[in-house]
Amino acid sequence: MKIQPGIGYTFDSSAKGFTFDTSEQFPDNTYVTHPFQVIAIGTVSGSFRYMVISGTINNLVPEIDDVITSSEALLDRTSGGLPYPPNGVLTINTSTKESWIYLRSGPASASPYAFPDSDITASSYPKVISSDVELTDTDTYGYMLLAKFTMDSATSPTFGTLNQYVTGSLWADRLKTGTDTARYYYAGI
Amino acid sequence: MGLVIGVGYGPSTWGALRSVIFNGTLSGSPVTNSGDHNVEYVAGFKTAAGNGFVRTDYGALYGNSTSKQYGPNFNAFITSGTNAKFASEYQTSTVGMLVNEDRAQLTGETATLSTGSLTIGSSAFVSPFQTFTAASTPTISAIGKLTAF
Question: In chain B, what percentage of residues exceed pLDDT 70?
Fold first, then answer.
């Protein structure tokens, strides 16, 4: 039998055994209110986990580095009895204790140069990432800030405040003029 | 008539209805690496104010302005001898690719050419376009209220 953390419950282990943590109330369906909603899970094995409710950018479902399977997984993964959505791990700034949750997308590097790249094996395919610093757009990637955590600790986080900035799926364009850095425009849908 | 954003053929997003202004006196394609929701403009003019793009129904993301005369543009060329024309050309519409509000903004601005300069008149936007004299084939290097790139 495998046990895994999910919405409203986590596990932690120590020399004395496992701790079943339900300090966060079990949510009902109304807890999930919109696409790209970021939800804190809690500390598991020393790392603070979060998840992102599935949404789309230009009709593509982003992926995330899933800590449970140690692989990239789509946000809408429902197969294999694994938790939905997959779980990411926060990368926390050691000074400010902040963590930025971005939707990272890039253009295809070969014709037809679509944005975002629809090749799921490419790094330019849309992906939700956690960063311990604020990121700025480049020609390679556009970064849309979904949410930001401010944690109680960078090294032993137990809880934090969460500010959500995006509340729906997105349409986006990438336009570049001359040698200027490409600019990315997003519209909520 | 309104245009539906985000479905099927035609305008897909905000960017589909925006463009830079092409420089018709430069050689080569003004657009590269363009695809769905993505366009890279090689050279041209962008607005000094705002986001750099002008409103048009002929944006590259709309799929119909990957050549200079199928998008908002300025061009200068010799017609015969030293007779030359300065023009915002159009091929598919007698109303051109620049909206009236932008034409009004650009009328009276100075266009700097390799052969001198001129003040853009309202005739530059309507065939048979604005006339001037030029000793050699002109190129446009600057236009007031716009930034060359």
Answer: 88
Q: Residues of A with CB below 8 A from B35's CB? A: 107-108, 111-115
d(CA A56, CA A54): 7
pLDDT at site A27: 47
Q: How many domains does chain B have?
A: 1
Nearest to A113 among B13, B20, B35 (CB): B35
Among chain A residues, CA nearest to B12: A171
**Would you say residue A66 lies in a domain?**
yes
Structure-block tokens of residue A13: 């282990």
* Domain contains A3: no
Domain that holds residue A70: 10-188
Q: Note whether residue A170 is domain-resident.
A: yes
User: Chunked in runs of 10, what are the mean pLDDT values of chain B (149 residues)?
Assistant: 63 83 93 90 94 89 73 95 95 76 96 96 95 96 97
Cβ contact B41–A171 (<8 Å) = no
For the residues of A17-60, what is the DSSP string, one character each?
Answer: EEEEE--SPPP-GGG--STT-EEEEEEETTEEEEEE----BTTB
